[in-house]
Amino acid sequence: MTEVIRELVIRKTIEAYLSDVTTHIYYENAPVGIDEPYIVYVLGDSIDDGSLEDMELEVNGWHNPINGDSTPLATLIGQIDNRLHRSTHQSDGVFFSIYRDRRVPVSDPDKRLRRRQILYQIRVMGVGM
């Protein structure tokens, strides 16, 4: 039997689930030179008590608008949040729910860039729990 790697299942599921909102979604780092709004996400720390694993999900929206308008980024991050918050998923025997924890205002040292961040908690059940 093939071992299921929960992190990879969760990443694949999140990207597929958000693909109708944007194709500009990247794990950990985005390619250089993207000007339109894009999403970079990271799965962070996790705590596993044997029956339930709590995992952090950090979602960052970035944009380098020519005219300084942050509306496209705010729209994209709002659509991402509408899809993720309180969503439930099942894939390859991994069951998980995503809940928004908090929104964090972030200023970038590069004043041309706009950034939005939302932190989520993922509650994971199944496969090897």
Would you kindly provide a written description of the structure presented here, covering whatever features stand out?
The model has no long low-confidence stretch (mean pLDDT 91). The longest helix has 14 residues. The chain has 2 helices and 6 strands, in the order H-E-E-E-H-E-E-E. It is of the alpha+beta class. It is 21% helix and 42% strand. It has a 6-stranded mixed sheet with strand order 1-2-3-6-5-4. The two termini are 16 Å apart. The radius of gyration is 16 Å and the shape is elongated.
What is the distance, rounded to the nearest whole angstrom, between the alpha carbons of the first and last residues?
A: 16 Å
Question: In sequence order, what are the helices and strands, one letter per element?
Answer: HEEEHEEE
Silhouette: elongated
Radius of gyration in whole Å, from Cα? 16 Å
**Beta-strand level of the residues, as a percent range?**
35-45%
Average pLDDT rating: 91
Major sheet description: 6 strands, mixed
Helix content: 10-25%
The total strand number stands at 6
Q: Could you say which structural class the secondary elements and strand pairing correspond to?
A: alpha+beta
Strand order of the largest sheet: 1-2-3-6-5-4
Spans where pLDDT lies below 50 across 5 or more residues: none
**Total number of helical segments?**
2
